[in-house]
Amino acid sequence: MVHAPALFLYAPQVQGKAVTTRTIDPREAAHFGALAADWWDPKGSSAMLHKLNPVRLGYVRARIDAHWDMNPADLKPLAGKRVADVGCGAGLLAEPLARLGGRVTGIDAAPENIAAARAHAEGQGLDIDYRVGDVAALEGPFDLIASMEVVEHVADVPAFIHGLAGALAADGLLILSTPNRTALSRLMMIHVAEGLGQIPRGTHDWDKFVTPEELKSRLEEAGLEVTDTTGIGFGLARGLVLSDDLSLNYLVTACRAARG
């Protein structure tokens, strides 16, 4: 699954002192930035992402409806809500989130991706606040934070997760997706998808894939509680679908843990 990494090295100011977060691998940003011009082509280098996006959107919509007790027929369930897409690439997820009524901020490490995202959103008449930066640049609180296919690209997973948690509103919703670190993901995503050119070579480092147990632990360390974990599977007949099988790729929903 193809997406841009979320973060640059960034030095925010905390009480007058510079604090450096080391959550980006510059090589990752360069890799995805080189794909920016092709991002919106459903038959180009991001073709797999175009196939994945409807599955992710269906999941996001279901979690929105469940968390805020929304009517599934409501066309604007995010109306009045602040939304962040961290590692937004050229805006493939940010745009539908804006169409759902959200006031969307998209952040990405690669300036090329942000330029492509801004141009495409303008052509669609969408007002999305796109920024080059990392998780430390998030100006929360956000009601919904999405970060899809990103955590496996960051250099410091705990710092990244804590950054997301720190920007989440008290009643906010965090949704992540990432490949699992299994023999199946190595076969399908590295050897098959990248080997056959369905995903650009060098997109993934299998050793950086995060298991559901590891991600759950990191989220809990950041004061969040996992409320749902759902797999993304693949079948020859149906393609990419939501699944109980977590072995290839999975989505996680988290919110602030209740204080006992």
Overview of this structure, please?
The chain has 260 residues and is α/β, with parallel strands linked by helices. It has a single domain (13-256), classed as 3-Layer(aba) Sandwich (Rossmann fold), CATH 3.40.50.150. It has helices spanning 26-33, 47-68, 94-99, 111-124, 157-166, 183-194, 212-221, and strands at residues 13-14, 17-18, 82-86, 103-108, 129-132, 142-148, 168-179, 224-235, 239-243, 249-256. The strands form two sheets. The chain has an eight-stranded mixed beta sheet with strand order 5-4-3-6-7-10-8-9. The chain is globular, with a radius of gyration of 17 Å. The model is unreliable at 1-21 (pLDDT under 50).
CATH H-tier superfamily = Vaccinia Virus protein VP39
CATH architectural category: 3-Layer(aba) Sandwich
Estimate nothing, just give the exact number of structural domains: 1
Separate helix tally: 7
Mean pLDDT over the full residue set? 87
Structural class: alpha/beta
Name the helicity range: 25-40%
Helix and strand pattern: EEHHEHEHEEHEHHEEE
C-alpha-based Rg, rounded: 17 Å
* Beta-strand content bin: 15-25%
Q: The CATH topology is what?
A: Rossmann fold
Strand sequence of the main sheet, in spatial order? 5-4-3-6-7-10-8-9
Q: Which residue ranges are poorly predicted, with pLDDT under 50 across at least 5 consecutive positions?
A: 1-21
| CATH class label | Alpha Beta
Any idea what the shape is? globular
List how many beta strands DSSP finds: 10
The profile of the biggest β sheet is:
8 strands, mixed
Quote the distance from N terminus to C terminus: 38 Å
